[in-house]
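ok so I'm stuck.
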Amino acid sequence: MRNLRLSTADGIAAVPIVTMSLPVNLFLTALVTKVIPLPTSTIGLLTSVPFVANFVHIFAMPALTRWRPPRILTIVTGWLHLATWAALGVLLPWLPRDDPARAGRWLIAWFFVSSLFVAVNSVSWNSWVQEWVPPRLRGKYFGRRNRLLQVSALVFLLCTGWVVGRWNYALPSFEAIIAVTALVRLFSLHWERESRTRPLRPAEGATLSVGKQLRVLRDSGSFLAFVAFGCVWSFAATCFGPFYQVFMFQQVHLSAFEVGITATLSQLGGALSMPAWGLLLDRYGNKPVMIVSLLLCQMGNFFWCFIVPSNSFLLYILWLWAGATSAGFVLGQFTILLRLLPLEAKNLALGFNLAVTSVFAAVAPIAGGYLIEWAGSRFGDPIAIYHAGFLIQPVLALAGAFLLFRVHEPAASPLSVVVGAMRNIRTLGGVLGLEFLINYFFIPRRPRRGGPAP
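replied:
not stuck anymore, here's the structure
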């Protein structure tokens, strides 16, 4: 139980630095649009770096896992990742703010090294926790832990937006955020070191040769169809997705605090709707629920094509809608992957899926950034150019959804059954994160003592 408590505390304290290490996040977007304004093509390159790191680390993991056990790898890469952020905090004033090209090259190199440590750390941490979290407790424990981590993320996003906005994007405000984040991460790493675990004995059994595993992979039609969908989805999500916050900063002229509120609303919508999506996934299967969730989410994305400074208040609704409706897709994506993995070649299949989808996710933001920059020099209407890009994203995502129909998931309900279930006001309210409001109106309240029932 002590290890479980330490892991929860570790996760809460690690949330800020993990959030700042994502391909798209409030801290980095504010930095490269307000402090060191980078061209959109360079922002696209910077966004692609974590996906490149995901691809590269696959080839390093076999040697690393033979070198040290997961616990040691987790702690070592955690310290190295923290060191990269400390280096950024120290060197930030020395970045050539008057030379975006040089500053961009430096940030890309730094972000690649940092993302590489994150990629190794994520894999080793997932392996480590399996050593000491009992299978019977994993669902309940991680559900509770993730809720606390979501609260930590909400607080961090709001505080980050308020700090950089309150000090008018001054460089010391970014340095202060890095310093506080690094300090909190020190506690996180201390709690990881205090966790005492025993490595599990590896399971004994015959392993197929690489050639036989490749043949198993080739014959796994549903898994390959899901990988193809993942490639299309990754490209669609990251082609213009990294530029939503850039658009909000540069074209709609929102403050960092306002952008932080939109990110908070997205996470809040996901947190409130997750229980309802989980029930739908358990009852009807992953594939049909994922398709419905994707359709609902992308319907909202079409409205980005009409956002201008005068109606920017709609962004709060769009981000809340996106968080609430995409939660089912995100939750089902991981569950269905586990079901489709060919057991005889599980590790090879996982590596294949991550490698291929990472390539598409890395290429997409580079292409999107260059397209925006090229169109800006050619046509000159930045808002119209962003609107065109925002139209491409949901069209590609919905086109890729047709590949999901080729995925066979045993015991999954037909799509029409899930659509029919969504007509129920309680189900729909739960999906939109309004379950508490629906219960208020539809669940009879207890009569007050001494008085009649209402």
